Amino acid sequence: MALIVQKFGGTSVGTPDRIRAVAERIVATHTAGNDCVAVVSAMGDVTDDLLALAAAINADPPEREMDMLLATGEQVTIALLAMAIHALGHEAISFTGAQVGIVTDAGHTKARIQEVRAECVKDALADGRIVIVAGFQGRTPEGQITTLGRGGSDTTAVAIAAGISADICEIYTDVDGVFTADPRVVPDARKIDLISYDEMLEMAATGARVLQLRSVEFGRNHGVAIHVRSSFNDHPGTIVKEADASMEQAIISGVTHDTSEAKITIRDVPDQPGVAAQVFSALAEANCNVDMIVQNVSEEGATDISFTIPKEDLARAKRTVEAMVEHLGARAWSVDESIAKVSLVGAGMKTHPGVAAQMFNALAEADVNIHMISTSSIRVSCVVSGGQAEKAVRALHASFGLAEDEIVAEAAPAARGGN
Ligand code: ADP
Ligand code: ASP
Ligand code: MG
Predict the structure, then answer these.
(1) Which residue from 173, 190, 258 has its CB within 8 A of the most atoms of ligand 1, so it is best to mutate?
(2) Which residue's alpha carbon is at the smallest distance from atom 9 of ligand 1?
(3) Which residue of 162, 238, 382, 391 has the smallest Cβ count within 10 Å?
(4) 344 CA distance to ligand 3 centroid (A)?
(5) Helix crossing, 213-222 with 153-163: angle to 10°?
(6) Which ligand gives the minimal distance to the CA of 157?
(7) What's the CA-to-centroid distance between 293 and ligand 2, angstroms?
(8) Residue 355 C-alpha from the chain's centroid
(9) Which ligand is nearest to the CA of 156?
(10) Cα separation of 403 and 290, whole Å?
(11) Ligand 2 within 6 A of 151 CB?
């Protein structure tokens, strides 16, 4: 007997028939002798619809009220799924994030989990019930409802798995696992059988939205094995766990892309110590998640600073930058909302020089211009025009031979490391 957390995403619970199919899968796992906790998302496009409703009322709504609104989506699904399980003759009980004791900070719309109490989950399991938990939501210590950012149900599932020491956290979704690129963009993308937390962190951080970044952080920090798999078949999916000798020693694991960021440029900022500190401290105070930063070579005592941020932070960032431009006496600022970040991820690039060069060549051959570049030891990212993202992903996937069944194993480590 095992203790299993199963998470079902929006498409997997998008219609009454699909909720019934999910109920049957959970009941089958329970009947096989396992203890089951199911974490569910809002049905289909409900979260997008709620966001659109809010936008129709107020272009910059108070974040506390956004959370009051968004948390309703998941609450519908938990009740319906519990009803579907009862209709199959089994005992199930549903809980909201607040009821379960998912305690978060007060960062409304992207709150971070601080603690998972889960007493009621353990009690209900001990009574032999199937437990159903609303994903994506929690509450502050003071009792305010919060949400965990887009894709946050993944994080609820992994956090609960950690909180009750589950044997495995299964993430059921609308693709067969984690692929070498988004299978909707690259039709011959290959399913990855095993991937390390570190590589999955970089893939999630750079746009492979199949797992929310924080769910992978949680999994790594608490040693939760994650199995990403399809809710429409029984094929084995992708296991995310600590790196070990059984994993493919691929140089490149995958290509990701992310069109959710915008680029802001501040022109002719005084080139003096402390200026960057002021700009980015103000953005941090406004709860804006800055990603890539580029500062140009200074000319005549002034320089240009460009950075990227999630579009959802744009309203706050614009207000902050406008005030900063005035405060610092910069010349002007502009926003480009049509950008994409395209990234190559792979632990093998640490010891395999030339990856970045091959990436830039492949983009050049595809006639894709690079606006910004950033690297980590296992990732190279380029900002390109939004309209060229898919072309860039396909070109990189082909250039690095990621579709091939037999991946080229990493050659003997080179003397010099780096991208
Ligand atoms: P869910 O509603 O189940 O949480 P999401 O839409 O959040 O599903 O995530 C699944 C989607 O992630 C897939 O439909 C796929 O288009 C996209 N995706 C992006 N990159 C990848 C990747 N590398 N591997 C698998 N899926 C990916
Ligand atoms: N319903 C939320 C979203 O669409 C959370 C999730 O599905 O994980 O982002
Ligand atoms: Mg998701």
Answers:
(1) 173
(2) 210
(3) 391
(4) 21
(5) 10
(6) 2
(7) 28
(8) 25
(9) 2
(10) 33
(11) yes
Residue 235 CA to its chain's centroid (Å): 23
Atom of ligand 1 nearest to the CA of 154: 4
Give the residue, by CA position, lying nearest to ligand 2 atom 8: 151
Tokens for 287? 């709860």
Nearest to 413 by CA among 353, 351, 356, 355: 351
Kindly state the tokens that stand for 277. 């500190």
Beta strands at 238-241 and 226-230: parallel, antiparallel or unpaired: antiparallel
Is the Cβ atom of 105 under 6 angstroms away from ligand 1? no
Atom of ligand 2 nearest to the CA of 151: 8
Task: Give the residue from 79, 95, 75 showing the smallest Cα distance to 19.
Answer: 79
CB atoms within 10 A of CB 162: 20
- What pLDDT, on a 0 to 100 scale, did the predictor assign at position 312? 87
Q: Report whether pLDDT(413) > 70.
A: no
Q: Tell me which ligand sits closest to the C-alpha of residue 76.
A: 2
Output the CA torsion 130→158→230→344 (10° steps): 180
Q: Give the pLDDT confidence score for residue 351 in this predicted structure.
A: 87
Ligand nearest to the CA of 41: 2
d(CA 186, CA 68): 37
Residues contacting 219, CB < 8 A, separation 6+ = 158, 162, 169, 197, 225, 226, 240
- Within 10 A of 279 (CB to CB), how many other CB atoms are there? 24
Tell which residue, 181, 198, 110, 250, has the closest CA to residue 376: 198
Confidence of residue 411 (pLDDT cuts 50, 70, 90): very low
Q: Say if residue 410's pLDDT is above 80.
A: no
Q: Looking at the CA of residue 153, tell me the nearest atom of ligand 2.
A: 8
Q: Which residue has the tokens 């990701």?
A: 256
Instruction: Tell me the per-residue pLDDT of 284-331, one tens digit each, with 9 for 90 and over.
Output: 999 899 999 998 887 788 999 999 999 989 999 999 999 999 999 999
Predicted confidence (pLDDT) per residue in 35-85, tens digit: 999 999 999 999 999 999 999 999 889 999 999 999 999 999 999 999 999
Distance 142 CA to ligand 1 centre (A): 34
Domains contained in the chain, CATH given: 3-174 (3.40.1160.10), 246-419 (3.30.2130.10)
H/E segment holding residue 314: helix 314-328
d(CA 54, CA 411) in angstroms, rounded, equals: 53
